[in-house]
Amino acid sequence: MRKETIAFITYDTEEDTYNIRLKNPLSVCWQITTKCNLNCKYCLSDSGLEGKYGLETKDAIKIINQLGELGINRLDFTGGEPLLRKDLEKLIQCAKYNHINTIVTTNTILLNQDNIRALKLADLVQVSIDGPEDIHNEQRQREVFHETIENIKKLKEEGCKIRLNSFIYNSNKQYVDYLINLSKELGVFSHLFIIFSPQGRGKNHLEEIIPEREVEKIKEKIIHCRKTENRNIRLYDYNEYIHSCVLLTPIGDVISQGFYEEDSINVGNILQQPLEEIFANEVFDHPTHILHYLQRRAKD
Questions:
Q1: Quick count: other Cβ atoms within 10 Å of Cβ 137?
Q2: How far apart are CA 196 and CA 239, in angstroms?
Q3: Which of 30, 211, 195, 180 is nearest to 103 (CA)?
Q4: Of 262, 254, 266, 243, whose CA–CA distance to 203 is shortest?
Q5: 66, 155, 223, 272: least buried by Cβ within 10 Å?
Q6: At what angle do helices 145-157 and 113-121 cross, to 10 degrees?
Q7: 10 Å Cβ neighbour count for 176?
Q8: Where are the domains of the chain?
Q9: d(CA 167, CA 215)
């Protein structure tokens, strides 16, 4: 279901500029847990077996109902590993009841018939592959490449719409072509490349920051491929979309994300203050938030 988002446009006569403010964000990314069965070297959320399980179901549902009342278009359930939440199916059902489009990001290693049923309720399932077998396994710190590939095929057979996510950093940037071909071979719905940001465990690996000139080359490659292959291939660069993403932590804190972790700002808690009020904080870059979630056809 499509929802309308109210935008307020004002003109500054002194600066001769227009400013756009939204009543609510278009999309919210929610780390519903930071517990994870893997221990990826550059994990943005520093997730692992010792992570936070997240809110109780009743509080999680309160948040989803609030997002529904506010008219949020899309909710990304991420982690950590969302399949570790025993109530994932119930949370997705609640989002669907509120007419919110849902995305679930999973490494698929815990896949079973029960959580496949939950994933089939989502509008999109995101699965990360970061390069060929050795590169992917090194980042995951476990030999899971082949299992992940087989689980992507299984989810496709079950009728799930799949997006491949690829985290690109200095040590794997040469595999962009490989990854583009892989997603084509797998026949997945879309492919999102995410440029390394030094957050979570990544903050201890500044050597993996890709030089700006090389990021631009990657962007050009992806833009060219999207045009020539007519596929939904996109790139997300934290450095380009500073303070445009609305991130919820497992306990409901609202984070405006920067490029470095120290640039990210805790703006409030959604269980203590309405998101509409929190999102009105000047720290959020509303015009960039809009660009973040739109296909930038004019620029591309």
A1: 17
A2: 9
A3: 30
A4: 262
A5: 272
A6: 60
A7: 19
A8: 24-293
A9: 13
* C-alpha R_g of the chain: 19
Checking DSSP bridges between strand 265-269 and strand 253-256, what pairing results, if any?
Answer: antiparallel
To 10 degrees, the CA torsion angle through 203, 162, 31, 168?
Answer: 10
Closest by CA position to 169, among listed 226, 238, 234, 225:
238
Rounded (10°) angle between helices 212-229 and 176-186: 30
Cα separation, 113 vs 165, in Å, equals 23
What is the architecture, at CATH level 2, of domain 24-293?
Alpha-Beta Barrel (3.20)
Matching residue, tokens 């299984």: 154
